[in-house]
TrEMBL record:
GO molecular function annotation: GTP binding; metal ion binding
Keywords, ordered alphabetically: Cell cycle, Cell division, GTP-binding, Magnesium, Metal-binding, Nucleotide-binding, Septation
Gene Ontology process terms (BP): division septum assembly
Organism: Kushneria sinocarnis
Alphabetized SUPFAM superfamilies for the sequence: P-loop containing nucleoside triphosphate hydrolases
Protein name as catalogued: Probable GTP-binding protein EngB
Segments forming domain EngB-type G: 22-198
């Protein structure tokens, strides 16, 4: 699979607006500012595929991208989460759409959960892991901004996350990543290719 041949398909505010539930897709989720857009842009080699630094409180959309020439294999950019400024009602509505998408989307093969290696397993991350567990859906954790820590510290951060999730080890995999240093792209590629072609 060549992720460099990825193009924008459509944006959907709710599950009902998503493209046909056929083929396979992988969703990217993460707390705002974790580094999700940078990871998607690095994976696809397209600097403006996923917009970085979105405006807080904007309409939350699920963005779909096609990998390759047809739309049978897709990457999905789930809205960032966690801006303090978002009103509680908006937050709740967004959670409902997200839970709905994770529960009902048959073509969803797995989720990449992006975490800042310095602040892993936030409340949002725990909520996502809970939903993934409820739906028996595999999760690949990207501990990104690994360049912000020394090698040893990054390795221990990864071990801590793995140890915290031993009860989910059948569903969860963990890797270090850095968009700035282009670290971990091959491992991410392999996981996505497996999910999208099984
Ligand atoms: P998003 O809100 O999760 O989409 O996060 P962004 O991709 O917009 O990144 C948030 C901030 O973290 C930006 O200032 C990025 O430049 C920075 N960032 C993202 N990835 C990395 C990385 O791998 N290393 C470093 N040092 N900074 C990063």
């Amino acid at each position: 699979l060549n992720f460099h041949v990825t193009r924008f398909l459509t944006s959907a505010p709710t599950l009902a607006d998503c493209p046909a539930d056929e083929g396979r897709e992988v969703a990217f989720a993460g707390r705002s500012n974790a580094g999700k857009s940078s990871a998607l842009n690095t994976l696809t080699g397209q600097n403006s595929l996923a917009r970085t630094s979105r405006t807080p409180g904007r309409t939350q959309l699920i963005n779909f991208f096609a990998v390759g020439s047809d739309s049978a294999q897709r990457l999905v950019d789930l809205p960032g989460y966690g801006y303090a400024k978002v009103p509680e009602a908006v937050r709740r509505e967004w959670q409902a759409h997200l839970a709905d998408y994770l529960r009902r989307r048959h073509s969803l093969a797995g989720t990449v959960l992006v975490m800042d290696v310095r602040h892993p397993l936030t409340e949002f991350d725990q909520m996502m892991l809970g939903w993934a567990d409820d739906n028996d859906m595999p999760v690949h954790i990207l501990l990104t901004k690994a360049d912000k820590l020394g090698r040893g510290a990054a390795a221990s951060a990864m071990t801590r996350v793995r140890n915290a999730l031993v009860e989910w080890e059948d569903l969860v995999s963990v890797q270090l990543f850095s968009a700035h240093k282009r670290q971990g792209i091959d491992t991410l590629n392999d996981t996505l290719a497996r999910w999208l072609t099984l």
